[in-house]
């Protein structure tokens, strides 16, 4: 297994930096040739970095968040208060099908769910406070407007985080575009006139630049291996990031060179030079015929060889990477689901055409950009048998197992599951 490791995806912690460095050193000492010299060995968990960024941003509205958290906690702790709050909501013709959500402060997405749900019941909080003087954590109209703006802003980060955390599709090819999407909205808010959103975006932009100012090259290469975009995505993103033509061309040249370097490493590793395979075959054919000829003198030999050479098509075949880039893009149905395209299956089907490139795609597209799916797979928290679970009758256990499996595979966003 050690010889097959391409990268390791870990949370963004200093202890993990030391771990990765030591692991890399030990592997090199053991004589293991790391993938592309180990340049792409360390992959930082994107979801963890997003969490750090948003937590920093949310500190700009910590007072409002604390007020909503305490209000929700106050109502949810008592069934009678929940009943009274629901009655107040119905008096305002508000649907009570969605429940209040209490967040986990260390998880920004749960805070986002809490704010989003509280926003639906903003008038109900005020109405219920008239009946229960104990509810003292109230926000004014300006505060609720601020929460509404922040929820719209955080929606982008939630969708990116959800996309990155998927486990049923490749995520490496999605990294480049989504990171640019985050950068674009942060830059837009930083350049805004002012106010709390600018202060929030500035904090988040500092963290973004710390971790993602220089985009991971291997992820850009992974995006090129998406036959729906190829180089067009890099060209599009660079045109939005860099103002000068020289900078854009310099970045594109660096990406193209890195793509060729990685591809050539596969050629060298497999000891196959596909670029000159046809020429080598033709040359061998000429040489074998030359050995059978018996020219009378040197000049006859020369003319004999010259004539044979002219009759042979010495055409060097294009490399797989050049052929792939020149082929037309796979058309995407704008009305369809972007995830209906199985990129790994596409490369598997094209293996006979792109023998080396399909190996490269298989390796790079399998790189997880978050550690969430891995933590979920290896977590034993949900499999611990406590006294309560061990006393359940078999039919109840079976029902719970089925229900848990259905929830995992339903595909609904987490906040919809929370609302049940």
UniProtKB/TrEMBL annotation:
InterPro entries: hAT-like_transposase_RNase-H, HATC_C_dom, RNaseH-like_sf
Domain called hAT-like transposase RNase-H fold: residue spans: 165-266
Domain HAT C-terminal dimerisation intervals: 320-406
Pfam families noted in UniProt: Dimer_Tnp_hAT, hAT-like_RNase-H
GO MF annotations, alphabetized: DNA binding; protein dimerization activity
Top-rank lineage group of the source organism: Eukaryota
Identification of the protein by name: HAT C-terminal dimerisation domain-containing protein
């Amino acid at each position: 297994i050690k010889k097959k490791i391409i990268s390791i995806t870990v949370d963004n912690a200093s202890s993990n930096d030391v771990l990765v460095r030591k692991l890399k050193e030990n592997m090199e000492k053991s004589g293991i040739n790391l993938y592309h010299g180990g340049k792409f060995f360390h992959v930082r968990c994107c979801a963890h970095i997003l969490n750090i960024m948003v937590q920093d941003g949310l500190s700009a509205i910590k007072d409002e968040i604390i007020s909503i958290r305490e209000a929700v906690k106050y109502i949810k702790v008592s069934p009678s208060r929940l009943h009274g709050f629901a009655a107040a909501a119905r008096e305002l013709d508000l649907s009570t099908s969605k429940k209040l959500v209490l967040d986990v402060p260390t998880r920004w997405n749960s805070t986002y769910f809490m704010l989003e749900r509280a926003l639906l019941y903003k008038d109900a909080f005020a109405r219920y406070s008239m009946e229960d003087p104990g509810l003292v954590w109230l926000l004014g109209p300006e505060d609720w407007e601020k929460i509404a703006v922040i929820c719209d802003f955080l929606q982008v980060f939630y969708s990116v985080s959800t996309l990155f955390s998927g486990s049923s599709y490749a995520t490496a090819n999605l990294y480049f575009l989504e990171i640019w999407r985050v950068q674009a909205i942060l830059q837009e808010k930083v350049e805004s006139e002012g106010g709390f959103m600018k202060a929030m975006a500035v904090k988040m932009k500092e963290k973004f630049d710390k971790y993602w100012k220089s985009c991971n090259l291997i992820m850009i290469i992974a995006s090129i291996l998406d036959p729906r975009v190829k180089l067009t995505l890099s060209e599009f993103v660079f045109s939005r990031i860099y103002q000068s033509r020289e900078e854009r061309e310099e970045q594109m040249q660096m990406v193209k060179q890195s793509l060729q370097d990685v591809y050539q490493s596969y050629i060298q590793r497999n000891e196959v030079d596909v670029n000159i395979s046809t020429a080598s075959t033709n040359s061998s054919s000429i040489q074998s015929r030359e050995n059978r000829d018996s020219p009378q003198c040197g000049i006859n030999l020369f003319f004999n060889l010259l004539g044979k050479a002219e009759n042979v098509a010495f055409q060097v075949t294009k490399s797989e990477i050049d052929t792939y880039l020149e082929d037309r893009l796979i058309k995407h149905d704008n009305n369809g689901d972007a995830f209906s395209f199985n990129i790994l299956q596409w490369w598997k089907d094209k293996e006979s055409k792109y023998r080396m490139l399909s190996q490269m795609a298989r390796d790079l597209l399998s790189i997880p950009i978050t550690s969430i799916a891995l933590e979920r797979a290896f977590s034993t928290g949900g499999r611990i048998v406590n006294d309560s679970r061990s006393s359940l009758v078999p039919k109840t256990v079976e029902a719970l197992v089925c229900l848990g499996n259905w929830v995992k595979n339903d595909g609904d966003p987490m906040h919809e599951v929370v609302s049940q």
